Amino acid sequence: MSSHSSQPNILFLITDQQRVDTLGCYGNNVCRTPNIDGIAASGVRFDQAYTPTAICTPARASLITGVMPFEHKLLANFERNVGYITELPAGTDSFAHHLRRAGYNVGTVGKWHIGVERGPEDFGFDGVHYPGWGQPVHHPDYLRYLEEHGYPQFSLRDEIRGRFPNGQPANAIAGIYQGPVEASFPYFLATRTIEAMERYAADGKPFFLACQWFGPHLPYYIPEEYAFMYDRDRVTLPPGMAETFEHKPVVQRHYSAHWAWDSFTPDDWKDLIARYWGYVTLIDEAIGKRPHAAEQLGRWMTLSPSLP
Predict the structure, then answer these.
(1) Degrees (nearest 5) of the Cα angle 1, 213, 184?
(2) Alpha carbons 61 and 93: distance in angstroms, whole number
(3) pLDDT-derived band at 84, boundaries 50, 70, 90
(4) Sheet holding 10-16, edge to edge
């Protein structure tokens, strides 16, 4: 809570497709997440919190509207759409409008992925629209950040993709990001969040600010030190890896085929899970940039559960 107002300032941190068991505060004793664990230790940790849907776009639409997907009717990611609507209707009410009426500045930094064209400003938020489900590494704002700090352009090596039955490469799963960690997309979002906090603090009004990472959702484009931070021999494959989809909805089989899961060996999966943990630690370190800034500004923070 700020000293100049009885209204609390809220910093809302949200990751994407992060398993709860990747966090030390939920029992993981391998993957290091000291900053998130520290926030959990000083606040409230929920043991029963559930997403309204396992799909990103409708879950995010529920987050800003406060209603279930069957009510807002944005039922699928537009990239995998089979005839549903792809935008929330014009004039859709969001919690940002209510906060603004209460005198708040309201902003968001990072992943949006609610529809195709309509971005944060269409729903009452300050913020740049970073479209799509994956890190937009060619977005003008990220390119500007790299140039501002003298960082090299985004580049990858050793990209990992599955293979479709016809031998064609499938979607990217991982790769080694060739650049300093400070130039990585998670650190970029951390920096932009701190900058937004400082602008709001100078303005003097209470604020709500969301920082929304694109990770640890695949593809795992992370520096080498994080890609190989954890030994794959410490990974225990989950029982679900043996799933055959017998007597299951056919859509599950289609999703598995779409991502070419069966083209990876058990050792491949251990390697990918270890990289995923490295991505989690990278984001945790980026989060660590903000508690310090928030403390300097005299702010309270809240941490959200991850979205799918």
Answers:
(1) 115
(2) 11
(3) confident
(4) 105-110, 207-216, 10-16, 302-303
- Residues 265-308 have pLDDT tens digits of 999 999 999 999 999 999 999 998 765 555 554 444 444 445 44
In our burial notation (b when 16+ CB lie closer than 10 A, e otherwise), range 215-248 reads bbbbbbbbbeebbebbebeebeeeeeeeeeeeee
Residue 146 · residue 153 · CB < 8 Å: yes
CA–CA gap between residue 230 and residue 239 (Å, rounded): 21
3 state SS for 120-147 = HHHHCCECCCECCCCCCCCCHHHHHHHH
The pLDDT assigned to 296 comes to 53
C-alpha distance from residue 296 to each of 2, 196, 215 (Å): 11, 14, 27
* Model-wide pTM > 0.85: yes
